[in-house]
Amino acid sequence: MNETSRIYVAGGDALIGAALRERLRANGYTNLVGEPPGEPDLACPWQVEDFFAAERPEYVFVAAGPSGGIRANQSYPARLMRDNLLMTVHVVHAAHHHGVSKLLYLASSCSYPRLAPQPMRVASLMTGPLEPTNEAYAMAKLAGLVLCQAYRRQYGAPFITAIPANAFGPHDDFSAEDSHVIPGLVRRFHEARCCGQAEVRIWGSGSPRREFLYSRDLADACLFVMRNYDGDKPINLGGGQELSIADTASAIAAVVGYRGRLSFDTSRPDGMPLKGLDAQPLRKLGWTPSTPFRTALAETYDWFLRNIVTQENRDARKAV
Ligand SMILES: NC(=O)c1ccc[n+]([C@@H]2O[C@H](COP(=O)([O-])OP(=O)(O)OC[C@H]3O[C@@H](n4cnc5c(N)ncnc54)[C@H](OP(=O)(O)O)[C@@H]3O)[C@@H](O)[C@H]2O)c1
After folding, report:
1. Measured from the CB, is residue 166 less than 6 Å from ligand 1?
2. What is the pLDDT of residues 7-35, one digit of tens each?
3. pTM, entire model
4. Does ligand 1 have an atom closer than 6 angstroms to the CB of 64?
5. Which residues make Cβ contacts (< 8 Å) with residue 279, sequence separation at least 6?
6. Is any atom of ligand 1 closer than 6 Å to the C-beta of 11?
7. CA-CA 20 to 30 A from 220: which of 59, 87, 170, 285?
8. Measured between alpha carbons, how far is 93 from 48 in angstroms, rounded to an integer?
């Protein structure tokens, strides 16, 4: 990949895609195609085909396909599975058909078995049942991973898969209900602080542990593996901060300045008990994250404050 390469970031307006576009630019890669709002509807095969024929991307980052927290996974499993499957099939096939030089597909740590030994190693994929609360989404992401391997085996396509830790940062979906844990809590603590709410109730027991990676670091890792990794096996993108949900909530409350009480609603599901990625292979290649968790949270909250209107518009679009 050089500075004049034509690069397409699918999903370029969301958390990971926006961070990727920013990192690419910061590294001198300015020939980006299909930037928002010029993206095709990836669920529509002919729009994807026409887009690849017209724009001829040479490098593709697949950061598209809806995702969400436990509530979104329980409320919209069909949409999450269908849209992720459709988009992946269309983009991967078009990339092969148009001779893309390299494609990086982003799978998900949800695709590991619920009780995979920790930290989760790629060898554990498909060795046990998935977490039931996100099975449909996780299965679609697994299918995407196997699809990339299948194109590689049958056609020699230069497609790789990376499995990121839970990402957070600017451009995330900060809705209070359907979002991932960090943006959801940022929003709820912010609102609780603004209206003097004495208590914030958090889904689950607070004990599950998660590994978090700042979106800028994750984008950097994506760029790194695009340049330095070319294997059939997926590679974990981890090495970030591992914390319990309770400790995560306390850290967010401190950054937001919320001083009320935190309580835990144990009638709500916890999701997977532990989700840490084995980042040794990535570390051996020479990459580790660089942003301290607290700094990343502060930057995220700052972005949220400057973009509350964008989030309110997003909420309104969802409500229609
Ligand atoms: N966030 C994480 O922690 C995490 C962790 C591991 C893996 N991943 C994977 O990484 C990918 C990106 O995640 P994210 O959190 O940045 O994004 P996200 O909030 O899941 O949003 C997905 C992106 O896909 C786009 N998209 C949805 N339907 C589309 C369609 N029909 N045509 C074109 N684009 C469409 C969305 O565009 P609109 O906004 O216009 O709908 C958005 O840009 C996802 O596939 C997710 O599975 C995410």
Report:
1. yes
2. 999 999 999 999 999 999 999 999 999 99
3. 0.94
4. yes
5. 119, 236, 237, 238, 239, 288
6. yes
7. 87
8. 9
